[in-house]
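To: structure desk
From: M.T.
Subject: fold request, one chain
Message: Could you run this one when you get a chance? Sequence is below, nothing fancy, just the single chain.
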Amino acid sequence: MLGELDIYGVYVPGLLGLMLVTLLFSVVLRRALSWIGLYAIVWHRGLFDVALYVVTLGAITFLTQWVLS
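Reply: Done. Structure tokens follow.
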């Protein structure tokens, strides 16, 4: 597990940093999926976007732990 990040004397959880990275990656991924037309076959776009974010956060967290260990 990642420790805290020190941002100008304020300690924030490491997961918050991963969540921000995931948010940026998720925005790019959603635009790419929209461009190729995947959302035309998705039943509920909001639910799909939340699931995509959670899966992406899990993958980035796993890769971060794998690289750091």
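Reply (cont.): Residues 32 and 67 are 27 Å apart (CA to CA). Let me know if you need anything else for the meeting.
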